[in-house]
Structures are given as structure tokens and as C-alpha cells.
Write a structure and sequence with these properties.
The structure holds two protein chains of two kinds.
Chain A: H1 9-18, H2 22-42, H3 47-63, H4 65-79, E1 82-86, H5 89-102, E2 107-110, H6 114-118, H7 121-126, E3 131-134, H8 137-145, H9 161-171, H10 181-198, E4 201-204, E5 208-210, E6 215-220, H11 224-229, E7 234-240, E8 244-245, H12 248-262, E9 270-274, E10 288-294, H13 298-303, H14 317-320, H15 323-328, H16 339-349, H17 352-360, H18 367-371, H19 378-391, H20 397-410, H21 413-430, E11 431-432, E12 435-436, H22 443-446, E13 451-452, H23 459-473
Parallel strand pairs in A: 1-10, 2-3, 2-4, 4-7, 5-8, 7-10
Antiparallel strand pairs in A: 5-6, 6-9, 11-12, 12-13
Chain B: H1 8-24, H2 32-43, H3 58-67, E1 74-79, H4 85-95, E2 103-104, H5 108-111, E3 130-134, E4 137-139, E5 144-148, E6 163-169, E7 173-174, H6 177-189, E8 196-200, E9 205-206, E10 214-215, E11 222-228
Parallel strand pairs in B: 1-11, 2-3, 3-6, 4-7, 6-11
Antiparallel strand pairs in B: 4-5, 5-8, 9-10
Classes of the chains: A alpha/beta, B alpha/beta.
Chain lengths: 474, 231
């Protein structure tokens, strides 16, 4: 699996922009999601109230996180769940693999979980002698392709139908020779059915953890979570500690927000609450249930005043509405979490030194905050990370020089106006038919698009002239 | 059954996480009663933060929702008594050109019916089968039915067949998901929480290939809800 590094963000972006069809395939899905979300919000006039309620529920749980974690642990234990704790991604991944080895598991089925990706489970299984089977259709496609996910809701959005046709013909035991999407889905259905029924261990994430019952909740539109979890003898849940809510009644408002924001549907088809192992004489279900509660940077976010980010319910609306994401796609970010939410999360899960460039890949147009179902002030959080990055001197020297020079000029209006006037003349030299295709010091811009020719004089000059004309006219 | 892991490393990791939370928010109260009161207060907002139903009557609201095509791949009908169920199932077979074979959930209200002419115990591990289950609840807000795992309710019965028929007693149709959450809370207080509580709202679907919706990704492609009026 070729995974980009967050450190090489600039190179990743150049590669993404050079791919001729990438922008088209990204926009096909994100534009549709944007339209459908807008319709869902229009049809739900109480959306703003719901959003405020969702924000308050998450804030309340985060504020009392230790209380709710202890409650969850107590109730999960009472249900018969074995509770594990992991401070880091490596610890979490090792715990899961150890459980699998203790049960001599040969193959495990997994339903899509971003936390599973975050702790590197896919990679850990691929480096072991245990076969990993992804059961979400998109995850199945990217597993066959050897790709990392490119979106948190549609991880295979970067793959076209033609790609899927080739992959299924190569890897499915009874592949379809049709190129119809329905037939492709049927091919995956045939291929995965036996795998569901013969898996040794089922691994899931959790959209919500209910403190008052010790339950974990999965939300899928394919029903693959239940098919992953029910047949094997062992169920392992991996979940971030921020997934907590006090009770099912508190999860309900968030369920209303989650699907509308993610896909524009009013509800996802399958919302299941899992409560420990099967009861005596139950017709089916796993005999053993484990949950791994993962910190991996979340308490660091609490300590660094980034707790608003822990509200995130992983709907993906911020990336569906992000002009940067729509151009470069998910892989360029070099992280499990792309887009605006990823640009805030990655510096905490990895480090700001490694992922500071992502914090600058934002136009500050505010769309992500406008559509966030739990009101996360993403632009504000990104700005605070930029400030921190500046203080820690993570910016390249050229950037620091330019910004410091600007600061000097901005404090001296006459010098600023003089240099601006010179800049206008300089730009005019390179202008052809109203556009600048090349100009020294601007290759970062002109590499991918042209600069528009400036007006003949600076803004200040025009402003003064206009003011003078007005006063003489009066 | 309570299972603790006798693992000092696990205890250390646990302590590390709790200490980090305490260090991050040292002024936060741990008065349980005030936390519970605050949590309860948040739920009072639900009344103003949920969508209006298509009808004040829960059954009508659920049916209107399905008839409007708002629940993916789902149809519904109302019958007077459970005795009318085999006839409704026969009509379902005819509509979808299916052989008269299905898996009927092993529950008394379904097993006692007259299934003459219909094979009622097909192997659902095979594809292209029909399942028939008895739902615990219906939810008008989302067009959902709810099933609880039990000795008589295999969860896979709702996920393996390509066609699924769910029977909902009219008296068990709730207005909102919040109403079901209150019931779940009561069940939990009695320590009778089942292993699985599934809220199912439509069929197994995917938009993972080029954003095109396909029904029957892994589970049902067709879902039919039958509401029994006298139950």
C-alpha cells in the first residue's frame, strides 16, 4: 500500500493536481453530497436547534470525560465486555493483534472504522500471518487496489467504475463480466458472503459509546457491520475515547445530524447497538467481546484547548464543502483524516512539525464551519495551529522572510504604497492579454493557474482619486 | 458476568489516560448528581430539535413516509390480524416472482400461523432467500423497525436474505427515536438489555461506486413492512 507522508504535502499536492481525472471523480461525489445535504437541511427546519443540541451533548460529555469513561467501563464490564485501554496507536493495534493471536485467528473481517485506520490496523494485519478482509464495499475496493482511503465516508471515491471492473475481474472468485454498477455490487456480495460466515474474528469501530449501558453503536448503510460482528466467535471494537455520549437518548440527536450531514439521507439504514457477548441461548452472536478504548492524542487535544475538535462525529461534510479538498482529494494530505477536520486532527495524532503545511491549505472561506453538524470552529482552530507553527518556527525560511518583510512594510504606509506601485509596474511587464502566465517569485501560484493582470494603479491610489473626485463633485 | 483483565499494563495505560484528562481539566466537578441533571436537561431540547412527522398518528406517519419513497427499497401494508399474514406473504411472492419458500422466525405468533403451501425453513446462508421476522417496535420518524437479539431472534435473519418481510404490531409503533431510547433505558434498568438492538430503516445499500445507489449490497434488496392492526 503506497501511503503519502504528511510531511511531503507540497509534493503530494503537485502529484494530485497532475492527475487528469482526479478532480472530476472527487467532484462527482462531493458535489452530489453537497446538494443532498442542502436538501436534507431544507427539509429539516429544526436543523439549527438540532445542531446546537448536538454541540451541547458533545461538549457536556467532553467536559466530564473521566466520569463518563468510568461509567462506560463499569457498564461494559457488567455486560461481559472485556475492556482494554490504549494510550497510543501502536498499543491499540498490538492489543487487537494479541487478541487475534490468542484465538489462533486465521482470518478476520473488518467493518469500516476510521479509528482502525488511525491506529494502523490494516497495516498491522498485512504484516502478520492473519488474513484481513474488509467488508465495507469501498474498503473492499481499496484493499484490492492497495490504496489508503481518500475520504472518511467514501474511501474509494478516487476509483472509477473501470478501475473496479478490473479489480473485481482480477480478484473475485466468481467475477461478473458486466460493467454495470449493480452487477459489480453483486460480484462483491458473492465474494464476501462466505467470508462473513467463515471469519474467526469480527472487528468494528463505533460511532457512539453509550456510557449508561456500556454499548457501542455502529452506523452503516450496507449492513456489513452486523454481518462482520455476528458470525465469528469474537468481536473486537476499537473506539476513540471521544465517542462517548451519556446514553442512547443522547446519541439519537447526533444520529439525526450524522447522516444528513454525511450523505443527505435522513437516517442510515442500519443503526445497531452492541452490548457485550451473546446471551445464554441466543440464536447467534459472538461468544466474546472486547473493546479497546484509544487515546492517541485526544487527551493532548484536551490539554491544548482543542477540545472543540473532539466534538467531531466524522460525517465528512467539511471535506465535501472544502475547495482545497475538492481540488486535491484525500491522499495528498498524507493522513487518515483529510480535509479541514484532518488538518486539525493530524497535527495532534502525528505532530505539528510534520503536518503544519496542511494547516495552511485553507482559504478561510468558512464553509467547513458553516456545515459542521456540531459547530466546530475549524477555521479558528486552523488559525491557532498556524500561530503555533509560527511560534515554533516550523515555517520554511522563505515564508518567514516574506511574512516578516510584510510586517515591516505594513507598519510604514508610505513605503508600503511605494513598493505596491512598483509591484504593479513589475506585474504589468509580464502580463499578456490580461493574464500572467509566468513571473519571478510566483511559481507556486503560476504552476497550476494564471495570475490576473492588476489594475494600472494600486488600490490606495484609486481610493484617493475616487475620494478626491467625490469631494470636488460635491 | 464481569470480566476484568488482570493485566498491570492495562491498568497503567488506563491510569495514564485518566491522569491526562484530570491534568487537562482540573477544575471540573465530579459531583455525579449535578452531571446527571445537566445531561437530563440536554434532552429537553429534543422536542424542538427533531423533524415534524407526516402525521400525528404514528402508524399513519410511518406508512406515509414509506409510501413517499423516503425509506430506501421499502414498501408497506396493513393487515387486520396475524391470520392474514400467510396471504400477504403469498402476494409478496407473486409480486416478486419468487418460489414459495422463506425462513420464518422461530417465534410463537409466527409459527402458529397456517403456512400451508409455503416452505418455512430455508437456509438463509444461501443467497436469494426470503426472511420473515417479528419486529419489537416500529419508529415513525425514520420508517424503521427494531429487532432485539434473543434465542428466538437470530440477528442474521435480518441481514442475510435478499428479501425481508418484517411484521410490526400496530401498538408497538413509536413516534420518535427518542421514544425508543426511553424504552431501551427501561430495559437496561431491569438488566435485560439484549446483545443487539438494531434499528433498521430500509435495505442494504451502497453508493461506493461512482456515487450510484445500488440496493442489496450485502443484505436485503427488498424490504416489506406489514403492520398488524389488532396487535
Amino acid at each position: 500500500m503506497q501511503v503519502n507522508s504528511p510531511e511531503n504535502f507540497t509534493e503530494n499536492v503537485s502529484e494530485a493536481l497532475a492527475q487528469p481525472n482526479l478532480k472530476k471523480v472527487i467532484r462527482r461525489t462531493t458535489d452530489k453530497a453537497e446538494t443532498k445535504r442542502a436538501e436534507a437541511v431544507t427539509n429539516f427546519p429544526e436543523f439549527e436547534n438540532a445542531r446546537l443540541q448536538g454541540q451541547k451533548i458533545k461538549d457536556h460529555t467532553i467536559k466530564y470525560m473521566d466520569h463518563y469513561l468510568a461509567e462506560f467501563e463499569k457498564n461494559a464490564l457488567a455486560q461481559g465486555t472485556i475492556v482494554h485501554w490504549a494510550s497510543t496507536a501502536e498499543e491499540a493495534s498490538k492489543i487487537v493483534l494479541d487478541i487475534c493471536r490468542q484465538h489462533n485467528a486465521k482470518k478476520v473481517t473488518r467493518s469500516k472504522s476510521m479509528l482502525g485506520e488511525e491506529i494502523g490496523l490494516a497495516h498491522a494485519f498485512d504484516n502478520s500471518d492473519i488474513e484481513r478482509i474488509e467488508t465495507d464495499l469501498a474498503e473492499h475496493i481499496i484493499q484490492l487496489a492497495g490504496d489508503p482511503p481518500s475520504h472518511i465516508i467514501w474511501p474509494a471515491m478516487h476509483r472509477s467504475r473501470e478501475d473496479v471492473v478490473k479489480l473485481f475481474r482480477e480478484f473475485h472468485t466468481d467475477p461478473t463480466y458486466s460493467e454495470e454498477i449493480t452487477d459489480l455490487v453483486r460480484s462483491a456480495r458473492r465474494d464476501l458472503r462466505t467470508k462473513f460466515l467463515t471469519s474467526d474474528i469480527g472487528i468494528s469501530g463505533s460511532n457512539f459509546l453509550l456510557a449508561d449501558s456500556g454499548s457501542s453503536c455502529t452506523v452503516t448503510n450496507e449492513g456489513n457491520a452486523e454481518l462482520t460482528i455476528t458470525p465469528p466467535k469474537v468481536h473486537i471494537v476499537t473506539a476513540g475515547i471521544e465517542k462517548l455520549v451519556p446514553s442512547m437518548a443522547h446519541a439519537v440527536p447526533l444520529l439525526r445530524l450524522l447522516t444528513r450531514s454525511a450523505t443527505g439521507a435522513e437516517i442510515t439504514q442500519y443503526n445497531t447497538f452492541h452490548n457485550g457477548p451473546k446471551r445464554a441461548n441466543d440464536a447467534d452472536g459472538p461468544e466474546e467481546c472486547h473493546i479497546v478504548l484509544v487515546d492517541n492524542g485526544r487527551t493532548k487535544m484536551l490539554a491544548e484547548n482543542m477540545e472543540a475538535m473532539l466534538r467531531c462525529i466524522r460525517c465528512g461534510a467539511c471535506m465535501n464543502h472544502c475547495v482545497v479538498y475538492k481540488h486535491i482529494g484525500g491522499h495528498a494530505y498524507g493522513s487518515v483524516y483529510p480535509g479541514p477536520m484532518g488538518s486539525v486532527l493530524t497535527p495532534h495524532l502525528n505532530s505539528l512539525k510534520v503536518a503544519n503545511k496542511q494547516t495552511h491549505a485553507c482559504t478561510m472561506n468558512g464553509r467547513c464551519e458553516e456545515v459542521c453538524p456540531v459547530n466546530i470552529p475549524l477555521p479558528t482552530l486552523l488559525r491557532s495551529l498556524r500561530a503555533k507553527s509560527w511560534q515554533k518556527k516550523y515555517e520554511p525560511l522563505t515564508n518567514r522572510f516574506v511574512v516578516q518583510s510584510f510586517a515591516i512594510m505594513a507598519k510604514r504606509p508610505k513605503l508600503f504604497q511605494l513598493l505596491s506601485s512598483c509591484g504593479v509596474i513589475f506585474m504589468k511587464v509580464f502580463s499578456r492579454k490580461g493574464w500572467i502566465k509566468y513571473m519571478p517569485f510566483t511559481s507556486g501560484w503560476t504552476r497550476n493557474r494564471d495570475l490576473i493582470e492588476p489594475e494600472s494603479t494600486t488600490f490606495m491610489h484609486q481610493y484617493k482619486k475616487m475620494k478626491k473626485n467625490k469631494s470636488s463633485g460635491a | 458476568m464481569t470480566k476484568h483483565i488482570n493485566n498491570p499494563k492495562n491498568e497503567l495505560r488506563r491510569a495514564k489516560i485518566f491522569n491526562a484528562i484530570k491534568a487537562a481539566a482540573p477544575t471540573v466537578t465530579t459531583d455525579v448528581k449535578s452531571i446527571e441533571a445537566e445531561a437530563l436537561e440536554l434532552l429537553k431540547e429534543s422536542e424542538f430539535a427533531r423533524p415534524k412527522l407526516l402525521s400525528e398518528d404514528a402508524t399513519q406517519a410511518l406508512m406515509l413516509r414509506i409510501e413517499a419513497g423516503l425509506v430506501i427499497g421499502t414498501s408497506c401494508e396493513k393487515i387486520s390480524t396475524a391470520h392474514d399474514l400467510p396471504n400477504a406473504v403469498n402476494q409478496f411472492f407473486s409480486k416478486h416472482f419468487l418460489p414459495k419458500e422463506l425462513k420464518v422466525q422461530n417465534i410463537e405468533p409466527l409459527q402458529k400461523l397456517n403456512w400451508e403451501g409455503i416452505s418455512t425453513d430455508v437456509d438463509i446462508q444461501q443467497d436469494n432467500t426470503v426472511g420473515l421476522c417479528w419486529a419489537e417496535y416500529g419508529i415513525a420518524e425514520t420508517g424503521s423497525f427494531v429487532v432485539h437479539s434473543s434465542p428466538e431472534m437470530p440477528i442474521l435473519l435480518n441481514f442475510l436474505p435478499l428479501y425481508l418481510i418484517a411484521v410490526i404490531p400496530k401498538s408497538k409503533i413509536l413516534h420518535y427515536m427518542d421514544d425508543y431510547a426511553l424504552i431501551a433505558n427501561e430495559i437496561a434498568k431491569k438488566k435485560e438489555t439484549p446483545r443487539n438492538m438494531c434499528l433498521i430503516s430500509g435495505v442494504s445499500g451502497t453508493t461506493d461506486i461512482e456515487g450510484v445507489l445500488v440496493q442489496g449490497a450485502h443484505g436485503p434488496e427488498v424490504l416489506h413492512l406489514i403492520i398488524i392492526e389488532d396487535q
